């Protein structure tokens, strides 16, 4: 994680020496004039000229264009160093404005948000910049974002680049041979056929990179199909679309897990992805060329060894490794001990007394399901939880970007990414306070009930926790009121000491009897599963994944992992949609000789 988070000052109007911004400002004219002048400085490799267009505390965020990495540079000194090292070889050119508008996220914040496209020596890029007003009547750059979209000559086979050839009577046999890899091995092997594995497989397919996806489950989507029945996504539909095939316009705003399972199965079929189910990767060995020999065991016990250039882990942030605290006395306990990953339905415990250990999303989902089925349930809260309602929080967090009538998802992803994460989190603190005020009555009720609340990492709410932990929050859809009303009982006044034959004993001497003790305590690291596949020596070289580094970028996911040609594909549906393209572009660029792994990255 970041050793320290930099002091980030938002460009408020009072700080800029501005009282107001005219609502009728010609955003397109201002943005076009700025971009024309800026691009002329780039064409001349005039670094002083470039910096004159950017505020002294401005930001440049890059994804694969100048750095072959995800990097954020803050202030003139760091941006200058980047440009001195990387601008000339990249050969940025052909800048063209695509959009511009005045954006006022808060009354004291205003900037012109403008989109553009450009070219590099090897690719096509897109980006966004934000211009803030100055006291002398000019507009200057606050953020600048560059993102690689395509590799020249190797663009995705979509639209006019799709196949125009009719196929009479050959398609079934062709698909069978392709899916079975009857004519050779793939270039990429993906472990896991959840949304992350399918997204990156789809991206690679449209870049002509042969890819196989291996999944241990019997059917695609089973990782959602066999989670607890009460599971439903708490992110809105506009945030969750997958690449190339959006959800239908009639799809519910919040997707039930079983419905998503069916969609994943349909998606793989529609995109003609090569998925082997009921198969397990048992071993992966790296050769002297940093390529992989991967052993796959089928359901019948037979095996096939694939020789592939790239191996992708798409088994999730937790790697399907349930985290269960080591509590003394478990052997003495006479009841049922389980984890949320194994839970099916509250109907399995009718007439029982249940204690759920944990107080984030899964714990609330399960507790509400138990209440709805008349089961006596107590939630044991180990630490404070961030809570917001989807009713109040959803529109405030997602509404300007991923919502009905807002941007298309691909545009929304880029607008969001164009704001450096450190800056985004400062704005997020304001949003978090707004949501808390709107949810005030419910939050006060929770506090009266004894529920321990927090406002996220340093007041950053939902996304700040997601980026660091991938959990620790509850987006309320009703369970919180059950706690307020006493329908979900609560205990959090003492640490657990040990199991007893009939339940739990706590450090203060109190006890809690239960027929079922359900751990909703999250998941461990994916490297636990991966070490079983490629051994401890390689596993020890894999860098820590997730949380933010010193630049505010998520660590390791979707790019260099510390092990050549091994990649992590993970994240929620939105991040998988967006960053699957980045991962696929890196692999394709490596295959055509335009990118050489670690030696090409800007360190």
Strand ordering within the main sheet: 2-1-6-5-4-3
What overall geometry do the principal axes of the alpha carbons give? globular
Helical/strand content category: alpha/beta
The averaged pLDDT comes out at 96
Number of strands: 25
How much strand?
Answer: 15-25%
Q: Please identify the oligomeric state.
A: single chain
Count every helix, treating DSSP H or I runs of 4 or more residues as helices: 18
- Binned, the helix content reads 25-40%
Main pleated-sheet profile: 6 strands, mixed
Poorly predicted runs are none
Can you give a write-up of this model?
The chain has 603 residues and is an alpha/beta fold. Helix content is 31%, strand content 24%. It has 18 helices and 25 strands. The strands form six sheets. The chain has a six-stranded mixed sheet, sandwiched between helices. The chain has a five-stranded parallel sheet with strand order 9-8-7-13-25, covered by helices on one side. A hairpin with a 2-residue loop joins β21 and β22 (503-506). α6 packs parallel to α18 (573-591). It is globular, with a radius of gyration of 26 Å. The model has no long low-confidence stretch (mean pLDDT 96).
Topology:
Blueprint: H1 13-16, H2 27-43, H3 47-51, E1 54-63, E2 70-74, H4 76-90, E3 93-106, E4 109-119, E5 123-133, E6 139-151, H5 171-180, E7 188-191, H6 195-205, E8 211-214, H7 222-225, H8 237-240, H9 257-270, E9 275-276, E10 280-286, E11 292-297, E12 303-308, E13 310-313, E14 336-339, E15 353-357, H10 361-372, E16 376-380, E17 385-389, H11 390-398, H12 409-417, H13 421-438, H14 440-448, E18 453-454, H15 461-468, E19 473-476, H16 479-484, E20 489-491, E21 496-500, E22 503-506, E23 511-513, E24 516-519, H17 527-539, E25 566-568, H18 573-591
Parallel strand pairs: 1-6, 7-8, 7-13, 8-9, 13-25, 14-24, 15-16, 15-24, 16-20, 17-18, 17-19
Antiparallel strand pairs: 1-2, 3-4, 4-5, 5-6, 10-11, 11-12, 21-22, 22-23
């Amino acid at each position: 994680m970041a050793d320290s988070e930099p002091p980030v000052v938002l460009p408020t109007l009072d700080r800029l020496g501005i009282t107001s911004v005219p609502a009728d400002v010609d955003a397109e004219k201002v943005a076009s004039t700025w971009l024309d002048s800026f691009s002329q400085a780039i064409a001349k490799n005039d670094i002083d000229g470039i910096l004159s267009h950017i505020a002294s505390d401005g930001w440049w965020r890059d994804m694969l264009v100048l750095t072959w990495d995800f990097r954020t540079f803050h202030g003139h000194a760091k941006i200058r160093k980047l440009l001195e090292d990387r601008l000339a070889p990249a050969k940025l050119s052909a800048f063209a404005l695509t959009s511009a508008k005045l954006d006022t996220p808060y009354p004291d914040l205003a900037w012109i948000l403008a989109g553009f496209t450009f070219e590099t020596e090897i690719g096509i890029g897109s980006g966004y910049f934000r211009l803030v007003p100055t006291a002398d009547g000019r507009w200057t750059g606050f953020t600048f974002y560059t993102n690689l979209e395509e590799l020249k000559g190797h663009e995705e086979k979509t639209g006019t680049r799709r196949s125009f050839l009719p196929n009479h009577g050959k398609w079934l046999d062709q698909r069978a041979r392709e899916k079975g890899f009857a004519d050779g091995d793939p270039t990429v092997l993906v472990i896991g056929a959840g949304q992350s594995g399918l997204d990156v497989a789809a991206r690679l397919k449209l870049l002509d990179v042969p890819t196989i996806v291996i999944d241990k489950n019997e059917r695609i989507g089973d990782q959602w199909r066999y989670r607890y029945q009460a599971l439903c996504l708490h992110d809105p539909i506009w945030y969750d679309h997958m690449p190339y095939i959006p959800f239908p316009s009639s799809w519910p705003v919040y997707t039930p897990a079983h419905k998503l399972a069916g969609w994943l199965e349909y998606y793989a079929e529609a995109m003609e992805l090569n998925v082997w189910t009921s198969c397990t990767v048992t071993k992966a060995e790296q050769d002297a060329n940093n390529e992989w020999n991967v052993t796959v065991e089928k359901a019948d016990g037979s095996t096939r060894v694939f020789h592939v250039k790239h191996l992708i882990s798409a088994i999730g942030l937790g790697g399907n490794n349930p985290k269960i605290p080591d509590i003394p006395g478990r052997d003495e306990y006479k009841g049922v001990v389980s984890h949320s990953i194994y839970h099916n339905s509250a109907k399995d415990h009718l007439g029982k007394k249940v204690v759920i250990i944990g107080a984030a999303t899964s714990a609330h989902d399960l507790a509400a399901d138990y209440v709805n089925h008349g089961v006596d349930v107590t939630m044991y809260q180990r630490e404070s939880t961030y809570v917001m309602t989807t009713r109040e929080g959803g529109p405030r967090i997602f509404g300007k970007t991923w919502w009905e009538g807002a941007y298309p998802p691909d545009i929304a992803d880029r607008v969001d990414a164009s704001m450096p994460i450190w800056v985004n989190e400062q704005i997020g603190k304001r949003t978090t306070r707004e949501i808390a005020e709107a949810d005030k009555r419910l939050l006060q009720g929770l506090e009266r009930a004894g529920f321990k609340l927090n406002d996220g990492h340093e007041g950053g709410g939902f996304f700040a926790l997601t980026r660091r932990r991938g959990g620790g929050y509850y987006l309320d859809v009703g369970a919180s009121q059950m706690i307020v009303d006493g329908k979900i009982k609560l205990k959090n006044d003492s640490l657990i000491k040990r199991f007893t034959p009939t339940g739990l004993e706590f450090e203060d001497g109190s006890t809690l009897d239960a027929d079922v003790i359900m751990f909703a305590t999250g998941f461990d690291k994916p490297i636990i599963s991966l070490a079983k596949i490629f051994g401890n020596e390689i596993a020890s070289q894999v860098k820590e994944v997730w949380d933010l580094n010193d630049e505010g970028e998520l660590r390791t996911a979707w790019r260099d992992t510390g092990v050549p040609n091994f990649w992590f594909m993970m994240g929620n549906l939105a991040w998988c949609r967006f960053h699957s393209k980045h991962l696929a572009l890196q692999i394709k660029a490596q295959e055509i000789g335009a990118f050489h792994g670690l030696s090409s990255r800007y360190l």
